[in-house]
Structure formats: structure tokens, C-alpha cells
Specification:
Layout (H helix, E strand, L loop, with lengths): L7 H4 L12 H4 L4 H8 L5 E4 L6 H11 L3 E7 L5 H16 L3 E7 L6 H5 L2 H5 L3 E7 L3 H4 L2 H4 L3 E4 L5 H14 L3 E2 L1 H11 L3 H11 L6 E2 L1 H7 L12 H15 L3 H13 L4 H16 L5 H16 L4 H14 L5 H15 L15 H5 L27
Parallel strand pairs: 1-4, 1-5, 2-3, 3-4, 6-7
Helix pairs in contact: 10-11, 10-12, 11-12, 12-13, 14-15, 15-18, 16-17, 16-18, 17-18
């Protein structure tokens, strides 16, 4: 019989929550995932975390812990409407037989709005339990309606200590040794991604019969460090530098950090989204056109894709960097939010309330107000408690 090759990452994949490294905030006693396993209660979840933090592993552990469920896996990258419909039909059939269906969707953020909406009635009816995995902030990438019907579980990028433990375990599985300094180096280069680290050990083991050295690690990782930064601290450092460079009107630095992000494998829509926010947050009323340009850039990136969308991104970055800056609207927004927090129940003044009935008019609703552009009422428009603020 032909030998079937099993990747090292698959051999080391945890089968219980206790074996999952670096996510103790949700896997330990009292943690949400631990409770879901103990209670054997299938629940729709969104697993949000950087690559290689155990999203698929956790979904499969939950599947094994929940009794008698039909577990279906889809990748949003390759699945289409036809696949979604097939899963829904399968779930409906299972329900008639008294069985629950758990659908795991990897990279769920890649599903468009209509695809995500297709799940809603079936999650609400209990026909389908959805576990979505995403590396992107679900607040931006997952429909609000879907978010409201799921629990978001935040998974952390593995810290160096957890990575070193995992790397040493992988080396032992390959009958190799690795010193802590070398394991620490590999941990840093892997950027908290367990899959990258384990695969690197698997390849490095082919270069030596004893100890995996620093040179072995460098030979395996013959790429610049930025390619491992997408899920590490440097990713956030680059994103911060990108925004601050535009804020400081340094177009050369802005372009440099833009292309560092692109070269590191960053989702171009993440970059475009940050520019949409920047246009209102940092430019605002100083150049109101900036928001329209940033939104147009987002749409262009969405429709064109890389590499051609690099022109759209670069064009918009230079324009935003050169634009005049004003945080007046941002400051006013935060002031308004503070006022709402301080006076959440302030009553709308009678004179600016609508008065569709004679009784409401007799009570003073809409009194003295002219509904025309530019009209200023002597008492203003703010609730009484805020008029002097």
C-alpha cells in the first residue's frame, strides 16, 4: 500500500482544548470555549485571530465535543452560492432526522454580503450552527446582522514563549534538537504563526540529522522578515507609520509604508479602509473631497485587485498626504459622544418636535419654529441641559 504523507502540522494538531497553546483566556476553566465544550452546547461563533493561531483546530475540537453533529467545512475563497445552498439543504434534511449541522467557514470575511445574509434565517431557526474563521476585524468584514447572531472569540497571536514551546515540540517529533536561542529566532521570524514555524521545522529537519541550527533556520526562511509581519507587532507598526506619514503630509514616507504593507501580503482592502477613515478623521472639513476620493479608491481596489490596484492606492495616498489637515470634525465628534454619555436621556426640546396633531400643537410642539433652511430658533436646538455647553 502506498504511504500517505501527513504534514507535521497535521500530526501536531491538538485534539483537546488543553493541548491548544497560547489561548488560555478562552480555553482554560471559565473560558468561553471551555464552557461550550463542557456544556456540549453547539453555538454559532466567529473565531477572529491572526494566521496560525488555531482557528481551524478549535472548530474541529468543538465538533468532536458536541455530540452527534454533522460537521461541514467550507473555504470562502473557493465556495460559491451553490455550495452554500447545498449545505443549507443538508442542514434541513439533518434537522428532520433530529441532527444538528455545524458549518465551519474558513476566511468567512471573503463571503460577500448576500452570501453572509443567506445564513441568517437558518441560524435563527436553529437549522445551522455557524463557526466562521477570520483574520480580519469582524466589525468591518462581517455583516452586523450575522454578528448579532454569533459570539466573537478573539484569538491572540502566539507570544514568543508559546512559540518556543511549540517549536521544540515540533523538533522532537522530527527526532531533532533545537536550542532555545535558535527556537527563539524562529519564533520571531514566524510572527506568531504556528503553521509557519512548524513547516519551517519540517523543512529544516531535512537539512540536518541532529540539531537544527541558526543557519538551517535562515536557509529555510530565505525571505525578508517583512513577509512574516502581517500578523505580528511589525504589522501594526507599519500601519501606524503609514497613517502618521499621511498625517504629517510626507508623501514619500506614506508611499514607502504603503508598499511595505503590500509587499508583506497585507489585504489591500485593509489599506483602503484605513484611508477612508483617515479622510474623515484627519482631513475632514479642510478638504471634504478627500472622503469621496478615498471611497472611490476602496471601490477601485475591490473591483480591480492587485497588482493593478497599486496605481489606485498610490494615487490616493499621495493625494491624502498633500491634502490640508483638520481634526475639527473629529474633536467635535468626541465632544458630542461625551455629551451623549453624560446626558443620555436629555429630552428633545418641544419647539423642534414634530406636531402632526392639534393636541401636540396645543402642548407646544413645534412652537415658533419655521421649517426652512437657515432658520435659527432663539432657544436653539440642543436639549435644555446642554444649551450652555
Amino acid at each position: 500500500m502506498e504511504h500517505v504523507y501527513t504534514p507535521l502540522a497535521e500530526k501536531l494538531r491538538p485534539t483537546t482544548l488543553q493541548e491548544v497553546i497560547g489561548q488560555e483566556h478562552v480555553t482554560s476553566d471559565g473560558g468561553l470555549l471551555n464552557l461550550l465544550v463542557k456544556n456540549k452546547q453547539p453555538t454559532s461563533l466567529i473565531l477572529w485571530g491572526p494566521p496560525g493561531t488555531g482557528k481551524t483546530t478549535i472548530a474541529r475540537i468543538l465538533k468532536d465535543a458536541w455530540d452527534d453533529v454533522d460537521f461541514v467545512e467550507l473555504s470562502a475563497v473557493t465556495a460559491g452560492v451553490k455550495d452554500v445552498r447545498a449545505v443549507v439543504e443538508r442542514a434541513q434534511s439533518n434537522r428532520r432526522l433530529g441532527q444538528k449541522t455545524v458549518l465551519f467557514v474558513d476566511e468567512v470575511h471573503r463571503f460577500n454580503k448576500s452570501q453572509q445574509d443567506a445564513f441568517l434565517p437558518h441560524i435563527e431557526s436553529g437549522e445551522l450552527i455557524l463557526i466562521g474563521a477570520t483574520t480580519e476585524n469582524p466589525s468591518f468584514e462581517v455583516n452586523n446582522a450575522l454578528l448579532s447572531r454569533t459570539r466573537v472569540v478573539v484569538l491572540n497571536s502566539l507570544d514568543e514563549s508559546a512559540m518556543v514551546t511549540l517549536i521544540q515540540k515540533a523538533a522532537k517529533q522530527m527526532n531533532r534538537t533545537i536550542t532555545k536561542p535558535v527556537a527563539s529566532l524562529l519564533a520571531k521570524l514566524s510572527g506568531g504563526d504556528a503553521r509557519i514555524a512548524i513547516t519551517s521545522i519540517e523543512i529544516a529537519a531535512q537539512l540536518t540529522k541532529k540539531s537544527i541550527t541558526k543557519e538551517d533556520v535562515k536557509n529555510v526562511l530565505q525571505r525578508n522578515n517583512y513577509q512574516f509581519d502581517k500578523s505580528g507587532d511589525e504589522h501594526y507598526n507599519l500601519a501606524s507609520a503609514f497613517i502618521k506619514s499621511m498625517r504629517g503630509s510626507d508623501e514619500e514616507a506614506s508611499l514607502y509604508y504603503l508598499h511595505r504593507l503590500i509587499a508583506g501580503g497585507e489585504d489591500p482592502l485593509f489599506i483602503a479602509r484605513r484611508m477612508v477613515v483617515f479622510a474623515s478623521e484627519d482631513i475632514g472639513m479642510a478638504a471634504p473631497y478627500a472622503l469621496s476620493l478615498a471611497v472611490a479608491c476602496f471601490q477601485a481596489v475591490e473591483r480591480v485587485g492587485l497588482p493593478e490596484a497599486e496605481y489606485n492606492l498610490s494615487h490616493t495616498v499621495v493625494a491624502l498626504a498633500r491634502s490640508p489637515k483638520s481634526r475639527e470634525t473629529t474633536d467635535m465628534m468626541y465632544t458630542a459622544k461625551q455629551q451623549v454619555a453624560q446626558f443620555p436621556g436629555a429630552k428633545v426640546p418641544l419647539h423642534i418636535r414634530n406636531a402632526p396633531t392639534e393636541l401636540m400643537k396645543d402642548l407646544g410642539y413645534s412652537k415658533g419654529t419655521k421649517w426652512e433652511a437657515g432658520f435659527v430658533h432663539p432657544d436653539g436646538f440642543m436639549p435644555k441641559e446642554l444649551r450652555k455647553k
